[in-house]
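Quick log. Single chain, no ligands specified.
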Amino acid sequence: WSAFVDVGLRLADPGSDIRSIFKDLRDVLREDRNRRATHQEKRKAIDALGIRRKPFSISDLIQRHGSFQGAQNYLQQELGITLIVRERVDASVYGFKRYHPLVEAQDDDTDLQAYVCDEEHGFYIVHTDVSAIFVSPPNDRGEYPLELVVIRKVPVDTPCGTSTLEAMTSTILEACAHRKDPNHDGTMVQIGWNMGARTRPVWAPQCARILGYATSFTKKLTDDEKTRQDHSLIGALSVLWALILAYVPLDITEPLRATLEGEYPPMATSHVPLGSGYRIELDDTIFDFSTASRAPPEGIATAGYVAQVPHIIWSHTDATWLDWSFGWTVARFVPDDFDLPDDEGSSFVDMELKVVVRPAAATLSVFKPDALHGTT
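-> predicted structure:
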């Protein structure tokens, strides 16, 4: 029935009675398949995901516990987070430059221009079972500036958490299958605002910069299907935003929220207008958070994406409109012919901190995009 209705919607003339009938049929089928979560179910889901947990501030913890070591002990014992002092140094001091491959192991085939990112070469390894917050040594005011955040088990390992990760994975893979991406290995797609990236529509000069909603769909889909997929991806990114506000230190999120709420609208698309609220589907149940805040206006989804020139994964910097970028790894698939240990490869590397973050599902990370970084 679903396939029959999808074909009917594609073939029926816009505005015709036949199309209206098919739309009604589609709605009935969705109502039969998906029920809406009750208020109590939504509250349980929010609690299970940890969205209502009280965030902390590193500066407040240091003040409350009387010392940096006191804050360290509290984070380790109560939250399982390691607080680490590590100085950020300009990459040029280490001889690191842009557009070089990053590797975790070296063999006869390793590119001679590659940077080997392991403990022997002075890198700190954040293993897959470790949550860590990196701060610089104290400045003249006695403050410890935050540099990098890695929180594992986001969301926590519960049936609801597992369902959420599976739903997010399906949403990302669907988005990556139907939207355009750069000509690199894997897929990276955008939703929301196009914040001035270079693009060249047929009517514009070469390398014109366009500010507006990203038009990323490549496959011929109905407007209703585009709207549905936009709602799904907005929902996934809004869940990420809610997790960021719950798990990431206030030292980062408070000034960020002040900037966003004062200058930028929430996420929307040409098919989903501005407003509040988002929805996600978990185990054939629709969770409609109609009054919740959406994610900020720009987001991306990636699947096996590699930044490269043209076949080499390279170190790089990103020009962004905010000081921080946030990432959420919801799944990790290791191919059968993978040569490295399962927890290596696709690691994030901050070249200025000399830190390697090993990849794992359910990992929330926060990094400085204008610092030299890359993926192994």
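Residues 199-207 have pLDDT under 50 and may be disordered.
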